[in-house]
Amino acid sequence: MTYYSILPDAESRLHDHSKLFGKVSRYILRRYPVWPMIDHLANKVVPVHKHSVWYNIGGIALFFFSVQIITGVLLMIYYRPGLPWDSIQRIVMEVPFGNMIRSIHHWSANLMVFTLFVHMFSTFFMKAYRRPREFTWLVGAVLMGMTLIFGFSGYLLPWDDLSFFATRVGMSEIEKAPLIGMWLADIVRGGSDVTIDTIGRFYVLHVMVLPLLTLAAIGVHLFFIQVQGVSEPDSFASLPESRKRYRKYFTEFIFAEIPVWLFLGVLLVALSAAFPRELMPEADPFSSAPEGIKPEWYFLAQYQLLKFFPGKLEMVGLILLLLLPLGILVVPFIDRAIPANSRGRLVNRIGIIALLGLIVYTLWGWLS
Q: For residues 144 and 116, is the Cβ–Cβ distance under 8 A?
């Protein structure tokens, strides 16, 4: 459709609006004929069925990411990579509401990671990765990976005992990767061990490189979703058209999410007030590691699994760990039948085993 066929229809549809709104809209449409896009978004619908609640999880993850960006920018004002622990102490002790903002940043990061895990597995079990949404799934998997790197890179920035030794443990696991492990660990650390110079690398990664890449990936992910629409599970797709129910995406669905976002905002403030993020003593690379040091909870399952493969068996454990991300990437090209066939049901069972294993090993690592 050309500009000249769009504009008259668009202008006629604006006559009933207020004079100012109509003038502004016509001014824009004469230069940027975006009405087909507006029509597409206005007609976008979301299926209504017993699993519809899972459609909200992606929006919740995006809410937590927005909180991360806002609180992260506020923390950057006072954070100094050259004096990491001192600047965090200043934020906590001197800056008005500094510890509240830092705690909100901490809690929203953890809840974002948890929400993304829920979003990934709910999307998996609803089989939203099948044609034509293979690349939507792949971009989502990349976003999951970048979020985990976000957590790892940001954990060291306070430069306290807990974050320092946990990062050192994490880097030792990276060293075990075949062929490139030592090289990659040295690049990330900026040397053979975690030092104050590592802060500079992690800081640039955490506040510049990852946010730009993540925003680009989110843009692509949302674009695919808007163009391809929301996936329908087999149980809904098999219904006769007369029994299918939908609701408008940009009115009913989005408006229904706003109270959820408001509740989550209140929850973040409550968690930050009740359980503020503590600042441990400044890191001393020459001291011994605190007893029971562990990585963050979203790395506990991998950490616990590798304990079962000591010595020369570590390579077996690393190969097993690689199976989950590899399976995530290839599943759209293995389970393709609509509705699901025997292969699709087998993929479902494997997904259930992987989810249960992730939960069990995480809890085991947390309690051990």
A: yes
